[in-house]
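seq:
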Amino acid sequence: MGAFASDGRHRVAVLVRHGLLAMELGIVHRLFGQAVSADGERLYEVLTCTVEPGELRTDTDVTMNVHRGPELLAEADTVVVPAAGEDYEPRTVPSLPPELADALGLIRPGTRLASICTGSFVLAAAGFLDGRRATTHWRSADDLARLHPSVEVDPDVLYTEDGNVLTSAGVASGIDLCLHMIRSDHGAAVAAEVARSTVVPPHRDGGQAQFIRRPVTADPAAATGAARVWALENLGSRITLRDLADRAAMSTRTLSRRFCEETGLTPVQWLTRQRIDRARQLLEETDLAVERIAADAGFGTSASFRMHLHEALGVSPSAYRATFRGRGVAG
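struct:
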């Protein structure tokens, strides 16, 4: 942690912008604000600032008055940058308004930096993410990687920590990020009590990969299109490389090469991804037992299914079903 305020509390500055996602500001204040010592003393001081103090638009029908300016950043131990509406506007080159760049320049070396959702674009544009692993909302991950090639973008995780810089995925992942920082600062017991008071889990299984929808389609006009259409119609069956090559009327070697060219994946990788997606659909939309889903999706055994789902999404079948349906089955 960085230096502390004069009263011993860790100072968290939340830098907000016009179009602020109000929920994200609330997350930071609520979670850090509830962290207390064994003696009941508050462990953090959470303050909000903006580049130009005054009335600030939010993503709701209300505005908020922010009285503190960017000078607060020079006094902070942790700076959190939530998302704002401007982050979702199309852009072809990285952009950082001069006044925002000047404000970020006030941050002391060694200060812990964190972003929620697309607030990562601000940290990236300011150079704080160069050479670091980072994440953002999965819908914006490709744009972040395109605009900032020096950033190692991981679209599958809920949050990242690389040195003193942390990033989180979607809005609710800000909860995971704040709990992680509290846990790192003051231990699991304090973070668990904050989570309990907020009625959220102290730790969520898996990453945001489980929330990404991948369309299960195939272009029949592509060289391997007919083979892929056939495979999607027969996922529950045993499918070999030879089967796919025969459907595409080419050798297995040619099929493998063309498969990579057209999908970016090997045939085996592509098949596994389609089976995972089919299994996800069945977990979300049916009450079928895990064993039946494993068979219908082509994994053969429930053990194989559990292994592949955990490798892909970091969760068990029961945990995935509970997330999307509010209840689980043995898995």
